[in-house]
Request: fold
Amino acid sequence: MAISAHTSRTALRTTGVAFCAALVLAACSGGGGGQAKGPASSGAGTAGSGTRVTVTETEYALKLSQSSFTPGTYTFVTDNAGKITHALSIVGPGVQDARTKNIQGGRQATLTVTLKKGAYDLYCPIPGHKQLGMDQPIQVR
Reply:
């Protein structure tokens, strides 16, 4: 049984549309959450390990579930309770370029870092947000 050129083109077109739809769904299913960005030497680790700390982000504030920190591994669960996109960055001794992906309103992302003794800065890296108050220094003792 021979297949016509028209049938082959239709089948190829249908396969191409299905493939593109699968790519779009895969890209959208990430939800804006994610892991730390940067090399392992930045202090970034895998999700779920360490002491869990919730960071609630709103326009334009950060609220942490705890205020005292000792050296160790922490998983910061960042909850964007605001309406616009936010993210979380952490900078301090041994931690550089550790940040979540951008987080849409109503979504969460995690960031796991190992903190040493010293001063750290937790802030939203979206341009202008830190200056509007999304900046929280912490001290690890």
